[in-house]
Amino acid sequence: MYMSDLNPSQLHVRYLDGYENKESLVTPRCYTLTHSDTTGELFLTIGRTFNQKQVSGIYTRLMRDEVLAEWKVNMEKPSLYVHCHVSGGVVIGNAHWRYNIFKQHMRMVLEAFYYGDLELIQRLPELDQAPVQVHFHARQKRLNKVEDYGVFSNYQVMLDKS
User: Fold this and answer.
1) Angle at CA 146, nearest 5°, toward 5 and 30?
2) Cα separation values, 69 from 2, 94, 160, Å
3) How many Å apart are CA 67 and CA 44, to the nearest integer?
4) Whole-angstrom Cα distance, residue 56 to residue 71?
5) Residue 62: which domain range?
6) Which residues make beta-bridge pairs with 67?
């Protein structure tokens, strides 16, 4: 059995503007995920829109290592679209390095979305079979791409019970 990359005790979930997890809306529903390089803590905001305040600090604007995601419904089927900023603007690190870092941590990121919004997923079990698409945004054509990450249930958090 797979052991989770996510440490749930380091995940802090917040809802924007009263957008409580009791809402059963799939759309609009957006996730904004940032982290602390110092503590390893993850900060997830769930709301009708992305949390612009969370990503507007000078450090975050330079690092551009936030991950944004949103639910979209196409032909009555939900999909999770994830966005990572690989290059463009003023960012720390070259695009190939940043792409590899995002890829390395994507399982933990998707687990944070799953675990952080678990009440919604439990109310709407069809979300387990929703496809996950990750868009790596880059100026370089070879890195500006969308990758299939399977279905959302692949990112259920399996915690060590020992």
Assistant:
1) 65
2) 24, 23, 27
3) 10
4) 22
5) 8-155
6) 33, 84
**Dihedral, 109, 115, 119, 124 alpha carbons, nearest 10:** 60
Question: Quick one: pLDDT band at residue 14, thresholds 50, 70, 90?
Answer: very high
Average pLDDT over residues 13-27: 73
162 within domain boundaries: no
d(C-alpha 120, C-alpha 30), whole Å: 13
- Residue 160, domain member (yes or no): no
3 state SS for 57-80? CHHHHHHCCCEEEEEEEECCEEEE
Q: Around Cβ 148, how many Cβ atoms within 10 Å?
A: 9
Mean pLDDT score, 126-148: 95
**Global confidence as pTM:** 0.88
- The whole-angstrom distance between residue 135's C-alpha and the CA centroid of its chain comes to 11
Would you say residue 61 lies in a domain?
yes
> Does some domain include residue 3?
no
Neighbours of 10 (CB within 10 A): 14
Name the domain count of the chain. Answer: 1
Residue at token pair 């709407």: 124
In contact, 116 and 31? CB cutoff 8 Å: yes
AA letter at 95: A
